[in-house]
Amino acid sequence: MTVVSSPLAGRAIGLSSVPDPVFSGAMVGPGTAIDPVREPSEALSPVDGVIVSMHPHAFVVLDGEGHGVLTHLGIDTVQLNGEGFELLVSKGDTVTRGQPLVRWNPADVEAAGKSPICPVVALEASPGSLGQVAEDLEVKAGDQIFLWH
Protein backbone atom coordinates (compact mmCIF):
# COMPACT_ATOMS: atom_id res chain seq x y z
CA MET A 1 0.00 0.00 0.00
CA THR A 2 1.24 3.47 -0.90
CA VAL A 3 0.43 6.54 1.17
CA VAL A 4 0.15 9.57 -1.11
CA SER A 5 0.73 12.99 0.47
CA SER A 6 -0.43 16.40 -0.63
CA PRO A 7 2.25 18.22 -2.60
CA LEU A 8 0.74 21.58 -1.57
CA ALA A 9 -1.21 23.38 1.11
CA GLY A 10 -4.78 24.26 0.16
CA ARG A 11 -8.17 22.64 -0.11
CA ALA A 12 -8.65 19.07 -1.36
CA ILE A 13 -11.56 19.36 -3.80
CA GLY A 14 -11.69 15.99 -5.61
CA LEU A 15 -11.03 15.29 -9.27
CA SER A 16 -14.65 15.85 -10.31
CA SER A 17 -14.15 19.57 -9.51
CA VAL A 18 -11.15 19.99 -11.85
CA PRO A 19 -11.94 22.29 -14.81
CA ASP A 20 -10.50 19.82 -17.35
CA PRO A 21 -12.38 16.75 -18.65
CA VAL A 22 -9.27 14.55 -18.78
CA PHE A 23 -8.80 14.96 -15.03
CA SER A 24 -12.43 15.36 -13.92
CA GLY A 25 -13.30 12.19 -15.85
CA ALA A 26 -10.37 10.33 -14.25
CA MET A 27 -9.16 9.36 -17.74
CA VAL A 28 -5.51 9.08 -16.63
CA GLY A 29 -6.42 7.62 -13.25
CA PRO A 30 -8.23 8.30 -10.00
CA GLY A 31 -7.03 10.68 -7.30
CA THR A 32 -7.95 14.08 -5.96
CA ALA A 33 -7.05 17.71 -6.59
CA ILE A 34 -5.73 20.54 -4.47
CA ASP A 35 -6.91 24.13 -4.83
CA PRO A 36 -3.64 25.65 -3.54
CA VAL A 37 -3.13 28.66 -1.32
CA ARG A 38 -2.30 31.68 -3.48
CA GLU A 39 1.25 32.34 -2.37
CA PRO A 40 4.75 31.39 -3.54
CA SER A 41 5.38 27.78 -2.57
CA GLU A 42 7.23 24.59 -3.34
CA ALA A 43 5.43 21.55 -4.70
CA LEU A 44 6.56 18.53 -2.69
CA SER A 45 7.00 14.92 -3.72
CA PRO A 46 3.83 13.00 -2.80
CA VAL A 47 5.74 9.69 -2.37
CA ASP A 48 9.26 8.27 -2.04
CA GLY A 49 10.53 7.22 -5.44
CA VAL A 50 12.20 8.19 -8.71
CA ILE A 51 11.27 11.12 -10.95
CA VAL A 52 10.21 9.47 -14.24
CA SER A 53 8.77 12.62 -15.83
CA MET A 54 9.72 16.21 -14.98
CA HIS A 55 8.25 19.31 -16.60
CA PRO A 56 7.83 22.79 -15.13
CA HIS A 57 4.04 22.30 -14.87
CA ALA A 58 3.89 18.56 -14.01
CA PHE A 59 5.87 15.66 -12.62
CA VAL A 60 5.52 11.92 -12.07
CA VAL A 61 7.15 10.05 -9.18
CA LEU A 62 7.35 6.25 -9.45
CA ASP A 63 7.36 4.57 -6.05
CA GLY A 64 9.00 1.26 -5.10
CA GLU A 65 5.77 -0.65 -5.81
CA GLY A 66 5.66 0.60 -9.40
CA HIS A 67 2.92 3.16 -8.72
CA GLY A 68 3.27 6.38 -10.72
CA VAL A 69 1.83 9.48 -9.06
CA LEU A 70 1.23 12.50 -11.30
CA THR A 71 1.11 16.01 -9.87
CA HIS A 72 -0.08 18.63 -12.37
CA LEU A 73 0.56 22.22 -11.25
CA GLY A 74 -2.50 24.04 -12.55
CA ILE A 75 -4.62 23.47 -15.65
CA ASP A 76 -3.34 24.36 -19.14
CA THR A 77 -0.12 25.60 -17.51
CA VAL A 78 1.91 23.87 -20.22
CA GLN A 79 0.95 26.97 -22.26
CA LEU A 80 3.07 29.12 -19.90
CA ASN A 81 6.21 27.44 -21.36
CA GLY A 82 7.84 27.07 -17.95
CA GLU A 83 7.48 30.76 -17.03
CA GLY A 84 7.09 31.10 -13.28
CA PHE A 85 8.22 27.54 -12.47
CA GLU A 86 11.64 26.64 -11.08
CA LEU A 87 12.66 22.97 -11.21
CA LEU A 88 14.51 21.80 -8.11
CA VAL A 89 15.19 18.21 -9.27
CA SER A 90 15.70 16.38 -12.56
CA LYS A 91 14.26 13.33 -14.29
CA GLY A 92 15.95 10.23 -12.89
CA ASP A 93 16.53 11.71 -9.42
CA THR A 94 15.57 9.67 -6.36
CA VAL A 95 13.34 11.74 -4.08
CA THR A 96 11.68 11.38 -0.70
CA ARG A 97 8.11 12.18 0.30
CA GLY A 98 7.94 15.88 1.22
CA GLN A 99 11.04 16.87 -0.76
CA PRO A 100 10.56 20.14 -2.70
CA LEU A 101 10.47 19.47 -6.46
CA VAL A 102 9.20 22.69 -8.09
CA ARG A 103 9.02 26.29 -6.87
CA TRP A 104 6.03 28.27 -8.22
CA ASN A 105 3.32 30.79 -7.34
CA PRO A 106 -0.33 29.76 -7.87
CA ALA A 107 -1.36 33.44 -7.78
CA ASP A 108 0.85 34.11 -10.82
CA VAL A 109 -0.73 31.16 -12.66
CA GLU A 110 -4.19 32.58 -11.92
CA ALA A 111 -3.07 36.08 -13.01
CA ALA A 112 -1.97 34.53 -16.32
CA GLY A 113 -5.54 33.32 -16.87
CA LYS A 114 -4.96 29.66 -15.94
CA SER A 115 -6.53 27.61 -13.17
CA PRO A 116 -4.09 26.92 -10.31
CA ILE A 117 -5.98 23.73 -9.32
CA CYS A 118 -3.55 20.79 -9.02
CA PRO A 119 -4.70 17.25 -9.80
CA VAL A 120 -2.80 14.50 -7.95
CA VAL A 121 -3.44 11.27 -9.85
CA ALA A 122 -2.70 7.58 -9.33
CA LEU A 123 -1.68 6.83 -12.92
CA GLU A 124 -3.44 3.84 -14.47
CA ALA A 125 -4.79 2.73 -11.07
CA SER A 126 -7.66 0.28 -11.24
CA PRO A 127 -11.10 1.45 -10.12
CA GLY A 128 -11.54 0.96 -6.41
CA SER A 129 -7.80 0.75 -5.71
CA LEU A 130 -7.74 4.04 -3.78
CA GLY A 131 -8.94 4.54 -0.23
CA GLN A 132 -9.41 7.48 2.12
CA VAL A 133 -9.41 9.99 -0.75
CA ALA A 134 -9.35 13.56 0.59
CA GLU A 135 -12.16 15.75 -0.73
CA ASP A 136 -13.68 18.95 0.61
CA LEU A 137 -11.17 19.58 3.36
CA GLU A 138 -8.20 21.81 4.12
CA VAL A 139 -4.80 20.13 3.82
CA LYS A 140 -1.26 21.11 4.64
CA ALA A 141 1.61 20.15 2.35
CA GLY A 142 2.59 16.62 3.38
CA ASP A 143 -0.84 15.56 4.71
CA GLN A 144 -2.13 12.19 3.48
CA ILE A 145 -4.59 12.66 0.59
CA PHE A 146 -5.19 9.02 -0.42
CA LEU A 147 -4.06 5.43 -0.02
CA TRP A 148 -3.25 3.27 -3.06
CA HIS A 149 -3.93 -0.41 -2.37
Automatic annotation (TrEMBL):
<keyword id="KW-0418">Kinase</keyword>
<protein>
    <submittedName>
        <fullName>PTS glucose transporter subunit IIA</fullName>
    </submittedName>
</protein>
<dbReference type="InterPro" id="IPR011055">
    <property type="entry name" value="Dup_hybrid_motif"/>
</dbReference>
<dbReference type="GO" id="GO:0005737">
    <property type="term" value="C:cytoplasm"/>
</dbReference>
<dbReference type="GO" id="GO:0016301">
    <property type="term" value="F:kinase activity"/>
</dbReference>
<feature type="domain" description="PTS EIIA type-1">
    <location>
        <begin position="20"/>
        <end position="124"/>
    </location>
</feature>
<keyword id="KW-0598">Phosphotransferase system</keyword>
<dbReference type="InterPro" id="IPR050890">
    <property type="entry name" value="PTS_EIIA_component"/>
</dbReference>
<dbReference type="Pfam" id="PF00358">
    <property type="entry name" value="PTS_EIIA_1"/>
</dbReference>
<dbReference type="GO" id="GO:0009401">
    <property type="term" value="P:phosphoenolpyruvate-dependent sugar phosphotransferase system"/>
</dbReference>
<keyword id="KW-0808">Transferase</keyword>
<keyword id="KW-0762">Sugar transport</keyword>
<dbReference type="InterPro" id="IPR001127">
    <property type="entry name" value="PTS_EIIA_1_perm"/>
</dbReference>
<keyword id="KW-0813">Transport</keyword>
